[in-house]
Amino acid sequence: MALLEIEDLVMAYSGKAQPVLSVPRFSLEAGKQVAVKGPSGCGKTTFLHLIAGIVAASAGRISLGDTVVTDLGEAARDRFRARNIGYVFQSFHLMRDFTCLENVELGMSFGAKLDRDFAKSLLERVGLAERIGYRASELSIGQQQRVALARALANRPRLVLADEPTGSLDQETGERAIGLLREMCEENGASLLVVSHDLSIVDRFERKIDFRELNEALSRSEEAAR
Ligand SMILES: Nc1ncnc2c1ncn2[C@@H]1O[C@H](COP(=O)(O)OP(=O)(O)OP(=O)(O)O)[C@@H](O)[C@H]1O
Q1: pLDDT tens digits along 194-212
Q2: In terms of residue numbers, what domain contains 184?
Q3: 21 CA distance to ligand 1 centroid (A)?
Q4: What was the pLDDT predicted at 72?
Q5: What confidence score (pLDDT) does residue 111 get?
Q6: pLDDT on residue 107
Q7: Protein residue closest via CA to atom 6 of ligand 1
Q8: Mean pLDDT over residues 28-57, rounded?
Q9: Ligand 1 within 6 A of 44 CB?
Q10: Mean pLDDT score, 132-159
Q11: Ligand 1: distance of its center to the CA of 58 in Å?
Q12: Atom of ligand 1 nearest to the CA of 48
């Protein structure tokens, strides 16, 4: 059964006549993983923001399990995201003066109840057992990204969304991070949707989608530009 289902999703940013995104259909099964590739500006981040409920769609339907995310108001979407979705940002978005453990626990505070042992086990899982008390600002870039991966799993999400999760890392560190993210999603039964322009990352996934084919608004604007 599909965990995530999207129908006739349209997004036009306020004040803009033309939609930047128009996706007729997309689905992701529970526990499955998919990579979406596409060049800069094709709408990948917008797609993830819509699924996470960070922005509201102009039209269409997004459902996650039994919840129709597009029917929710902003506060309800925020609450739903905190309880059901893990998000990995390209630039991590860690609290620099908070410790690794505090950063992971922050991922729990609005979602699952605070579970320090689970937070510690996630940091151990990403190889940071020795750094639990370090501030984020005292970590290398690769270590910061591993804290961000642990935080994304902290609320035991059903879905993890990752936006260019290796964009700030060198090739080898990036490949290791994505391998770790995939393993952790599998271990925790979470579905994973990764967007990236990096083909060496995308090509590792069994299911991969070119966002230019999914997003009909792009082909329309390209036609109009001809
Ligand atoms: N807040 C906004 N207001 C108006 N237009 C926006 C806004 N955010 C994004 N856009 C436009 O939407 C389009 C898609 O942007 P988006 O960030 O989703 O692309 P992307 O594929 O993630 O790009 P990148 O890989 O460079 O991050 C772009 O043309 C961008 O200018």
Answers
A1: 999 889 899 999 999 999 9
A2: 2-225
A3: 10
A4: 97
A5: 62
A6: 84
A7: 13
A8: 95
A9: yes
A10: 94
A11: 15
A12: 18
Name the residue at shortest CA distance from atom 28 of ligand 1: 41
The full DSSP string for 145-197 is: HHHHHHHHTTT--SEEEEESTTTTS-HHHHHHHHHHHHHHHHHHT-EEEEEES
Cα 161 from Cα 159, distance rounded (Å):
7
The number of domains in the chain is 1
Residue 28 Cα, ligand 1 centroid: separation in angstroms?
Answer: 23
The string of pLDDT tens digits covering residues 96-131 is 999 999 999 988 877 667 899 999 999 999 999 999
CATH of the domain at 54: 3.40.50.300
DSSP the chain: -EEEEEEEEEE--TT-SS-SEEEEEEEEETT-EEEEE--TTSSHHHHHHHHHTSS--SEEEEEETTEEGGGS-HHHHHHHHHHHEEEE-TT----TTSBHHHHHHHHHHTSSPP-HHHHHHHHHHTT-GGGTTSBGGGS-HHHHHHHHHHHHTTT--SEEEEESTTTTS-HHHHHHHHHHHHHHHHHHT-EEEEEES-HHHHTTSSSEEEHHHH-HHHHHHHHHH-
Candidates 9, 22, 36, 44: which one to mutate for ligand 1, based on the most atoms within 8 Å of Cβ?
Answer: 44
Kindly give the number of the ligand 1 atom that is closest to the alpha carbon of 49.
18
